[in-house]
């Protein structure tokens, strides 16, 4: 029996994807034969555009790992990537039909299984798509899973997510994910570079995040990130900066349960960095393409 689509926040249309193919953990087989030549061409063009933007803007670890995705002229087969990823860090990617519930997402990460949406955007959505598609997930997330430090961080995030789900603190932990794994910046080679998948897979935000004078860029602290709301329909107004992937791993090593209790008593920050009003923002998806 297939699973039901997952809806986060408010939307006038249901999530895309064939959830009738999903198993109990929301994974499914990658239906490679279903991809059209237009789908493959869209992937090729997206890959070429983003690759050209990476020098001087993406972190060195990402650029070094990107070739591990394999050929970029067609959508990769997941089993081919897994043949390289498993020996490297013990991770594998699994297909999902689209957005999945928080707990199912956390459980997959905790088991070192990264969910990748198996459909690709239409040519009309080339520049922006709200839901994560296969290009966002593969190009943005998977290369750094070949890095042992970030691979361990993502697994520990999944383990922490399972605990946060039981404590009613998923929103706080989601903000940390957003500002690190999705939209994190790292200081490297005397400048700022992106390591967050939401930046790395976006043609506009990759340039905006490291070069524009408009957004705030502040040193990452777990407390500040968890208190900070974010927007899913525009470039970020605040980015959090780390000095190394190891620093990110080390600063998130503790038990967050006492912190969750403390943060519930503190005011939140708006997406632009100012103190927010008491009304919380609407729930948001786990990531943005």
How would you describe what is shown here?
With 289 residues, the chain is of the alpha/beta class. The chain has helices spanning 37-53, 60-65, 78-89, 102-110, 134-141, 148-167, 170-182, 197-200, 203-211, 222-226, 245-251, 257-263, and strands spanning 92-96, 113-117, 185-188, 191-194, 216-219, 238-242. The radius of gyration is 18 Å and the shape is globular. The protein has a four-stranded mixed β-sheet. Strands 1-2 form a two-stranded parallel ribbon. Helix 4 crosses helix 6, helix 6 (148-167) runs antiparallel to helix 7 and helix 6 (148-167) runs parallel beside helix 11. It contains twelve helices and six strands.
Features:
single chain; alpha/beta; two-stranded parallel ribbon
């Amino acid at each position: 029996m297939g699973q039901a689509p997952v809806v986060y926040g408010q939307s006038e249309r249901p999530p895309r994807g064939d959830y009738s193919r999903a198993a109990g953990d929301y994974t499914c087989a990658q239906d490679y034969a279903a991809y059209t030549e237009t789908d493959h061409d869209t992937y090729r063009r997206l890959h070429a555009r983003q690759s050209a933007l990476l020098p001087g803007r993406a972190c060195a670890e990402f650029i070094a790992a990107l070739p591990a995705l394999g050929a970029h002229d067609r959508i990769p087969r997941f089993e081919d990537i897994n043949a390289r990823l498993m020996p490297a860090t013990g991770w594998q990617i699994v297909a999902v039909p689209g957005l999945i519930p928080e707990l199912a997402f956390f459980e997959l990460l905790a088991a070192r299984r990264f969910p990748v949406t198996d459909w690709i955007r239409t040519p009309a959505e080339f520049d922006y798509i709200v839901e994560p598609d296969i290009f966002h997930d593969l190009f943005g997330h998977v290369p750094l899973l070949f890095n042992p430090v970030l691979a361990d961080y993502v697994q520990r995030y999944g383990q922490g997510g399972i605990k946060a789900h039981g404590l009613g603190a998923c929103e706080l932990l989601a903000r940390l994910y957003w500002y690190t794994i999705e939209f994190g910046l790292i200081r490297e080679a005397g400048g700022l570079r992106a390591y967050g998948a939401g930046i790395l897979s976006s043609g506009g935000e990759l340039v905006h995040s490291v070069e524009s004078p408009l957004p705030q860029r502040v040193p990452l602290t777990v407390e500040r990130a968890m208190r900070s709301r974010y927007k899913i329909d525009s470039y970020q107004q605040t980015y959090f900066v780390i000095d190394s992937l190891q620093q990110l791993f080390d600063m998130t090593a503790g038990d967050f349960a006492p912190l969750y209790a403390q943060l519930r008593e503190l005011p939140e920050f708006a997406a632009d960095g100012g103190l927010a009003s008491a009304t919380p923002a609407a729930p948001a998806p786990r990531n943005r393409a």
